[in-house]
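Project standup — Tuesday

K.O.: blocked on the structure for the chain from last sprint. Re-posting the sequence here as requested.
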Amino acid sequence: MLNTVYKISQGIRKLSQLSYRSVVIKFVRPNTTYTNVFRSQKQKKEEGGEAIKWILLMIPVTSFGLGCWQVYRLQWKLELIDMLQAKSNSEPIDMPTNFEELNNLEFRPVKVRGEFLHDREIMIGPRALIEEHQAMPRTGSLMSDPKKNQGWLLITPFKITDTGDVILVNRGWIPKSLRPKDKRQPSMVEGEVELTGVVRLTENRRPFMPKNHPEKGSWFYRDLHQMSAHLNCSPVWLDARGIPDPPEGWPIPNQTRVTIRNEHLSYLVTWYSLSALTAIMWHRYFIRKLPLL
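H.V.: unblocked you, prediction finished:
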């Protein structure tokens, strides 16, 4: 009897030990799984943070490279402007008989002989006066002083003696007070003259610039095809050269505008500023582990 009781107690003891082990296993195994999951998520988060860190570094690096590119572009544009200014001040050549050659001679001075047709003159404007000492002429009248610099360009058809062709000559700038012909009669030269002018090609209308209205006598930009059709002449334009201080009542010549857009300095400052700002933010957040704000 005692032997039987002893065997039963041993069996119950073994069963209780097995139950305890299963409980321990059930509790221990899930805990191990959760630990691995958390560790894996943390590792992926760190790897993602490293990737974002180096991707964001491309912002200051790229903007710095664009700033360096604008330094090159600025130097190139200044050299181009100097070249065109030197070209416009070079020794004049004879006007070619084939006007197609003028397409390769913009800003080049040419000599021509003929007479002005004052009865067919037109005006373009308002335009600002280009003064001889200005390194970069202004290209419009919005930045000019209305009491001093606002005026018009006087465009007069010119009949060439040798060929009989009629071209357009920009005689120069006149103020508002000289728009009426009777106030500048001495400047309306009659008979044959020889003049030197700078070749200019047609001009595209800029954004927000009004359209030309030939029927109203309103001209805002140099459209050679439109002007030549209206005035029945060849689509050829010369900016007249002359003395910088003409007699009173005469148009002021030398109004050649080297209209090349040059905003590379502002682009340069913008890209370098962006590079410096984003580099400071990147260093503060990723290296020093500080908040951005």
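K.O.: great, moving the ticket to review. DSSP finds four helices and seven strands in the chain. Helices lie at 2-56, 58-88, 224-231, 264-287.
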